Amino acid sequence: MSASPLHDPFVRLDAGGTTLMLDLRHEEASILYFGSALQSATTPESIAASLVRAIPPNAPSIEPRITLTPLMASGYVGAPGLALHRDGTSFAPLPRLMEVAVTGTSVTLRSVDAAGALELIHTLALDSETGVLRCAAQIINRAPGICTLDHLAAPVIPLPVWASDHIDFFGRWAGEFMTRRAPIPTGAVVRENRRGRTSHDCFPGAMLASADASERRGEVMALHMAWSGNHAHRIEQLADGRGAVQFGELLLPGEVRLAQDEGYTTPTLIVAVGDHGFNAVSQRLHQFVRTAIVDPSVTARPRPVHYNSWEAIYFDHDPAVLGDLAARAAALGVERFVLDDGWFGARRSDRAGLGDWSVSEAVYPVGLTPLIDTVRSLGMEFGLWVEPEMVNPDSDLFRAHPGWVLSVPGAAQVPSRNQYVLDLSNGAVFEYLFDRIDALLRRHPIGYLKWDMNRDINHPGNSDGRASVHAQVQALYALIDRIRAAHPGVEIESCASGGGRADYAILQRTQRLWTSDSNDAIDRLRIQRGASYFFPCALLGAHVGPRDCHITGRQLSMAMRAGVAIFGHMGLEMDLRELTDAEASELAAAIVLHKQHRALIHGGNRVRIDTPPERDAFGIVAVDQSEALFSYALLEGHPATLPGRLRFDGLDPAKRYRMSQLWPIGAAAGSREVMGDMLMLAGIELPLVWPQSLMIWHLQET
Ligand code: DGJ
Asked: Are 164 and 210 in contact (CB under 8 A)?
């Protein structure tokens, strides 16, 4: 079977400063070019003609292509994009391109194998505003009998010719979004997440960079798989000099078995590319997230300043104390009060109560209403913590339904925070959870849910003894979608032991990410910087923590703690009774400053500045470059006698700005006029300050 003569030999899509060209001349489609916008006169024919590869000695006389789904049956000897079988046979499928449909800036390609037993569909779309690519692959079994799918990658992206380095995003609890840059080796960099949630340690994303790439300049590609379960990605350098990048769901044995006419679609792979450094690609992704991933009305409204009860009281709930904390929070300028873990069932510690989603009568004898009334009468919205996916063995729910948990027959549960994972793909579990959360939201004026998830899914077996991470994640999405549909005004935060479930798929149905359980401002600078490669700060919860950080024991000034939290979706998370008068007024001033500038902070372009390790610096620049905030923090002593200079970035070189220092309060008053080019090319000499200090400057076009 040959490719349909009805389609053109090439497809070209242009949007948002990006060009994508597909080569359809053969029986399998491949990416011919994906990068910064090409001239309209630069044709795919001319590119194809200049990319003809020689045939080396002792090699196949036709080089197997890196197609959207590279296939073993085509002779490809890198990692194939598709692996399946029918009870051990039909192990090397060979779908051939049949149909191509282009609509606006998207294309759908349909391929079918010779027997008509398998259909493979690729969809690729450039976001019309930002040029960000979204793509996915789908396989459909068209033959009788079961087809077991072991692997299907999202459309495979050829390694760009300029890519010499890869940036890995990894981390741990209270230490998310670390970054590591390394040369791409011959062979493959493979990252696999088998934790059943997005994970702290293996973020489903990576960046590729030219050797000279920095925040300011150089060629960069960012890839992210929008998925909250297991995944694998592979950056593969072939021995013949080519390379391929593939992202896919990591499927467990037997997890996807397709009966006739059943299909499986990969999670969506999102790719942004540019030639103006890391910042420009991140800004492209941020705009994409703000307009195409989260509900755009979320960031269009001012994001309310939070108070969260966790680090103040943990499980020690007392309505009188909470009323006092609410009054103190409101006086400081807080707009949303979130009651964290401990309000329900027998949840007096993390050993009991999960699953029993009714208010504890022991702690709240007359229910939550008086506290909610207090919070609302103080002018704040009320938010509530839940962890629907989990159950403590010591709970009424588990005693009644021990069979509702995911497990592996014969294997003891892996102990983890005294809790097991409910099987959300079980309809009874799903209905129970929906009913409980729906009842809470109907009974009380709750504007916000903090949706937590505090353990890995080590034993993802359902009651049929089948692997069930894929079904679990889909059921989770369906549950959140149903709650959102029933209560469209309720915002939801995605939390998983801090930032363990931060991805674009969860962001399609939630409105905030809890970035990390570390509220240590020094840690947070690095964590927020790492997260900013993929996520805009409007969606990243950033709280002012206690004076003595509960995670690191570090003691930090209010100026440092508040100065870091200003640049996120700001909140407070501490026992407000610990505040001295001076700290309280400094904190109130930080909240005023955040509110004054939050439209800029949450809507502007974040500009990371390359700095030596003992410092951190970045800016938020208005899209029209008329205004900016810049933050500089000295983390530890500098090697030279004086700190030296800081060069700004992202400004309009030809604009004149009035520059004033806003933070810490009481810093040198006064302002001066400076040109954008001066700040970016010459920079400013930094003042001599103590380590663990932070300052913020404001720039306003004159
Ligand atoms: C983990 C979260 O990350 C914390 O913020 C807090 O909500 C606890 N769980 C509560 O158990």
From this structure: yes
Q: What is the pLDDT of residues 310-352, one digit of tens each?
A: 999 999 999 999 999 999 999 999 999 999 999 999 999 999 9
Q: pLDDT for 421-468, tens place per residue?
A: 999 999 999 999 999 999 999 999 999 999 999 999 999 999 999 999
- What are the DSSP calls for 160-188, one per residue? PTT--EEEEEEEETTEEEEEEEEEPPSEE
pLDDT at position 672 over 70: yes
Residue 341 CA to ligand 1 centre (angstroms): 7
Q: Which residue has the tokens 């981390």?
A: 171
Cβ 342 under 6 angstroms from ligand 1: no
Q: Write the residue with the smallest CA distance to atom 6 of ligand 1.
A: 310
H/E element, 552: none
Q: Whose CA is nearest to atom 10 of ligand 1?
A: 341
* Residue for token pair 């899209």: 623
Determine if ligand 1 sits within 6 Å of the CB of residue 176.
no
Q: Which residues are catalytic?
A: 452, 517
| CA neighbor of 111 nearest in space, from 125, 124, 121 | 121
Would you give the end-to-end CA distance of the chain in angstroms? 67
Predicted TM-score of the model (pTM): 0.97
> Is the Cβ–Cβ distance between 451 and 238 less than 8 Å?
no
Q: Is 341 in the pocket of ligand 1 (CB under 6 A)?
A: yes
Going from the Cα of 480 to the center of ligand 1, the distance in angstroms, rounded, reads 19
User: In this predicted model, what pLDDT tens digit does every residue of 88-124 receive, in sequence order?
Assistant: 999 999 999 999 999 999 999 999 999 999 999 999 9
Q: What is the pLDDT of residue 2?
A: 38
Residues in the chain: 702
How much distance in Å is there from the Cα of 532 to the middle of ligand 1? 22
Nearest to 615 by CA among 587, 584, 640: 640
Which one-letter amino acid corresponds to residue 180? R
DSSP output for 512-534: EEE--S---HHHHHHHHHHHTTT
| Neighbouring residues of 196: CB distance < 8 A, sequence distance ≥ 6 | 229, 230, 421, 456, 457, 458, 460, 469, 472
CA distance 178 to 199: 13
Dist. CA 575 → ligand 1 center (Å): 16
Q: Is 310 in the pocket of ligand 1 (CB under 6 A)?
A: yes
Task: Tell which atom from ligand 1 comes closest to the C-alpha of 497.
Answer: 3
What local confidence, expressed as pLDDT, does residue 670 receive?
85
Strand partners, 594: none
Chain-wide mean pLDDT for the chain? 97
Strand residues in 427-576 grouped as ranges (E): 448-451, 491-494, 512-514, 540-544, 569-572
Closest ligand 1 atom to residue 573 Cα is 5
For residue 307, what are the β-bridge partners? 337, 572
Q: Is the CB of 249 under 6 A from ligand 1?
A: no
Distance 451 CA to ligand 1 centre (A): 9
Write out pLDDT tens, residues 19-51. 999 999 999 999 999 999 999 999 999 999 999
What distances in angstroms separate CA 148 from CA 86, 114, 138, 653, one per listed residue?
6, 19, 14, 58
CA–CA separation, 669 and 321 (whole Å)? 39
HEC states along 285-351?
HHHHHHHHHCCHHHHHCCCCCEEECHHHHCCCCCHHHHHHHHHHHHHHCCCEEEECCCCECCCCCCC
